[in-house]
Amino acid sequence: MQDLLDLANHLADAAADVIRRYYDDPAIAYKADKTPVTQADREAEAAMREIIARECPDHSMFGEEHGSEGAEKDYVWVLDPIDGTIKFMAGIPTFGTLIGLCHKGEPVLGLMNQPISGQRWSAIRGHATYYNGAPIQTRPCARLEDAMLGTTSPYLFREENRPRFDALRQRAKVTVYGTDCMGYAMLAAGRIDLIVESGLKAYDILPLVPIIESANGLITDWQSQPLRLREATYDVVVAGDAAVHSEALKSLR
């Protein structure tokens, strides 16, 4: 696994080279579903795929921009070249590159890289989470009323889930918005206590699972089930403390 983490770091470096080149001129376009995409998204993922195909020809890939290849294989790389594309377009450096590896559907390795600031989080499942080479952990927070809650945007929740999130938000001590992948990284580092989101894709969340879990956090869906590789979307609850995770699940139900 250490060799595969070394490869993930190589992928992050390759993607960062592309992203930095486009940072001041992102070449914006829009997909058929009206979500934004940039030339940096496409080229960064293509650069990572080229390296994986060369170094691990028996592995497959599942990425946001170039789809799935050979998802039936045991090892699947899950790639989001720019999580938080709107922030990238706006020149706000809270986006990140997400690189994950699943073995038989289970997330076993994760890396999140912020290519402008050089911040990097990584983890191998069952080992520590590292931030720029130093181990990190989540912080204790036993009560929802003491928790800092994060989410990317309340407008991303499905209609039936929005009232449930609002009820949870009203109990939390404070809420921070616009988190994207950076919120999960900050939770792993003990800066945020709870994140609740809805409608995520595999490439939005699975690379973050080992980062959260290896920092002593919890990450499940709204039914308290672990996250595995699939095509369907995910509603997630992430917490640094088991007690506040349990309270959040009860509130959402």
Account of the 3D structure:
- The protein is of the alpha+beta class.
- The protein has helices at 2-22, 39-55, 85-90, 162-171, 180-188, 202-205, 209-213, 242-252; strands spanning 28-30, 36-38, 60-63, 67-69, 75-83, 96-103, 106-114, 119-124, 129-131, 134-136, 148-151, 174-177, 194-200, 218-221, 234-239.
- The protein has an eight-stranded mixed β-sheet, with helices on both faces.
- A hairpin with a 3-residue loop joins strand 3 and strand 4.
- The longest helix has 21 residues, at 2-22.
Show the helix and strand layout:
Blueprint: H1 2-22, E1 28-30, E2 36-38, H2 39-55, E3 60-63, E4 67-69, E5 75-83, H3 85-90, E6 96-103, E7 106-114, E8 119-124, E9 129-131, E10 134-136, E11 148-151, H4 162-171, E12 174-177, H5 180-188, E13 194-200, H6 202-205, H7 209-213, E14 218-221, E15 234-239, H8 242-252
Helix pairs in contact: 1-2
